[in-house]
Write a structure and sequence with these properties.
Layout lengths: L1 H22 L2 E18 L14 E9 L3 E11 L2 E12 L4 E3 L5 E7 L2 E9 L1 H4 L1 H4 L24 H4 L6 E9 L6 E9 L10 H5 L3 E11 L2 E15 L6 E14 L4 E13 L8 E16 L2 E10 L9 E3 L2 E3 L2 E2 L2 E2 L6 E11 L4 E12 L20 E2 L15 E10 L1
Antiparallel strand pairs: 1-2, 1-3, 1-23, 3-4, 4-5, 4-6, 6-7, 7-8, 8-9, 9-10, 10-11, 11-12, 12-13, 13-14, 14-15, 15-20, 16-17, 17-22, 18-19, 20-21, 21-23
């Protein structure tokens, strides 16, 4: 008799987690997105790369890349009265090179109801939401075909540590998303001390009271979609003893209209960075404007995508310095002060669905930097591409001679599960 009671008790203990999981409506999900790339004539900087290539040489590269592949678990639990608890743990995986990192993507816990959604954790800010409205949906807004190379200033190796990126995940975040009211939605997020990292920022950021504030609004109804976002980074970058606190700001407006045969999108962005000096109260600034246009339409069973992006050269009150005929100008991320510091990008792609969960895609893109430009792909950047920030009396980039033009052909496949 006692053995029977013990068996029933053990069965009850083992069944409890399963019952809770069923009540919480837990779902496993993910996607594998891999492509083969031929990077054409990637111009190298003065650092020997690719087996000791000399400064300024051009070499073609072949590689297989993963493009935001992921594996996650999410769920909801009804709390009654229309209120739900929500959670998600999303991890990056690298099937091209056997690896991954736990909870390094959208990871949060929160509440959801008729009043909207509140969540806390580590996730993208509202500044990222607007990009899919502009375009690049057929290629999933990732890889070297993504728009992040010039937009939001993410296209420079090392930009995250410089605080120059506005399209990134933010640690220590609180976010509110409004309900959809006749096509209108709004979002507000604040995060502490870190953009794109996994540890919430370092001690010096904590002492500077660093934070990220991001907000935006969208309208999606019928053929029209439009949105506006604003983000400010307070003290993420380290200043000088005279001016220790820096503030960076970005503003984007984007929209699209679906004509049926083609969806046309457009975007405009302005970024502004504080440039510290060694004189108290004498702060300078570095600014840059960006615009883009895209077209997405059906072609046979698939979709084509065409886009053009233009990042202007850096302006503002920040000043360059010249020593022995060599000029150095302020730079944050890929935004550089002075002439010939802009870039443009072209892209064409085609996506072919094999099923509701499996896609094939191919495309070509090129980033055409001016002589002192420093833009690179936003995802899967090419290491060693010219990013030098010195120019001679003739205005030419020292170490590279002329501009770097990262470009590549892509053939990829993605499967959702």
């Amino acid at each position: 008799m006692n053995k029977k009671l013990l068996a029933v008790a053990i069965a009850g203990v083992l069944a409890a987690p399963l019952a809770q999981a069923q009540t919480a409506n837990v779902t496993l999900y993910g996607r594998l997105n891999l492509d083969a790339e031929i990077i054409i004539n990637a111009k190298q900087d003065a650092v020997p790369t690719l087996g000791g290539a000399a400064s300024g040489t051009k070499e073609n590269l072949y590689r297989v890349s993963t493009n935001s592949s992921r594996f996650g678990i999410r769920g909801t639990e009804s709390l009654g009265g229309g209120l739900n608890a929500i959670f998600q743990v999303e991890s990056s995986i690298t099937p091209d090179n056997a690896g991954g990192q736990l909870a390094t993507r959208e990871t949060f816990v929160g509440l959801q109801g008729g009043w909207g959604t509140f969540k806390v954790g580590y996730f993208l800010s509202p500044y990222d939401d607007i990009q899919s409205m502009f375009g690049s949906v057929p290629t999933l807004q990732t890889g070297i075909l993504g728009s992040q190379g010039l937009w939001s200033n993410t296209g420079w190796v090392g930009n995250t540590t410089q605080g120059g990126s506005f399209d990134d995940r933010v640690a220590n975040s609180l976010r509110y998303d409004s309900p959809n009211i006749s096509g209108f939605t709004g979002s507000l997020q604040i995060g502490g001390r870190d953009v794109g990292g996994t540890d919430g920022g370092d001690l010096s950021q904590l002492r500077r009271h660093a934070y990220v504030l991001s907000t935006g609004g969208q309208y999606n109804n019928g053929p029209i979609s439009a949105g506006i976002v604003y983000e400010v980074h307070n003290s993420l970058r380290e200043g000088t003893a005279a001016n220790p606190k820096l503030q960076d700001q970005a503003f984007t407006v984007a929209g699209a209209y679906n004509f049926g045969v083609i969806k046309v999108g457009a975007a405009y962005e302005q970024v502004k960075y504080d440039i510290p000096t060694n004189t108290a109260g004498a702060m300078q600034d570095l600014k840059r404007n960006f615009w883009a246009i895209s077209g997405t339409g059906n072609l046979g069973p698939g979709q084509y995508y065409l886009a053009y992006f233009k990042a202007n050269g850096g302006t503002g009150s920040a000043t360059c310095t010249t020593t022995a005929g060599i000029t150095s100008c302020p730079r944050v991320g890929a935004v550089t002060q002075g002439p010939d510091s802009g870039a443009q990008q072209w892209e064409v792609s085609y996506t072919y669905p094999l099923s509701k969960r499996t896609l094939l895609y191919t495309g070509y893109t090129m980033i055409d930097n001016q002589k002192n430009g420093a833009y690179n792909f936003g995802v899967n950047q090419i290491q060693g591409v010219c990013t030098g920030n010195l120019r001679n009396a003739a205005g030419n980039n020292v170490g590279c001679g002329d501009a770097a033009r990262p470009q590549g052909l892509v053939m990829g496949m993605v499967h959702f599960f």
